[in-house]
Write a structure and sequence with these properties.
Elements: H1 2-21, H2 28-48, H3 52-58, H4 66-87, H5 91-113, H6 122-127, H7 137-144
Helix pairs in contact: 1-2, 1-5, 2-3, 2-4, 3-4, 4-5
Length: 146
């Protein structure tokens, strides 16, 4: 499911990433691949530390609490580092690209998550593969609301 969200992200942001931010066209596919990898890792890490409530807050229409703001900042910072190390983009370009796409990514995931009641983590478990393949994270997610 994350793949379809990344396709939506690419559709919504590619033109502006090239024309307004200055990302080379030939780097776009890798940029979105890295974005998915970083988002996946960051969310799984947060949930594994007992931060499902933070993830749920970040991907809701409600105001972010300080923990969700921190998660969003970590996502941006890790993207910047990965764009530099994996794509060879400059720090300035990486920062512009990450701060440009993260709000759209959060918005797309929130749109999917808001299709269910606010206490239902199932869209996020599907998007980020937090089920049985997630090393027991699925049980943590299920147990959180039981």
């Amino acid at each position: 499911m994350l793949d379809s969200i990344l396709k939506g992200l690419a559709s919504e942001t590619s033109q502006d990433l090239v024309s307004k931010i200055g990302v080379p066209t030939e780097k776009l596919d890798d940029l979105f691949k890295v974005t998915g990898e970083v988002a996946q890792d960051e969310i799984k890490n947060q949930v594994s530390k007992g931060g499902l409530d933070t993830v749920m807050n970040l991907f809701s229409n409600g105001a972010n609490n300080s923990f969700a703001d921190g998660l969003q900042n970590n996502l941006v910072n890790n993207l910047v580092s990965s764009f530099i190390s994996k794509l060879g983009l400059s720090k300035e370009l990486s920062n512009k690209a990450a701060t440009f796409i993260v709000p759209t990514l959060i918005g797309l995931i929130t749109k999917e998550n808001e299709k269910t009641p606010s206490s239902d983590a199932s869209p996020l478990t599907n998007i980020f593969s937090l089920g049985d393949k997630g090393g027991g994270l699925g049980n943590m997610v299920k147990g959180f609301f039981n």
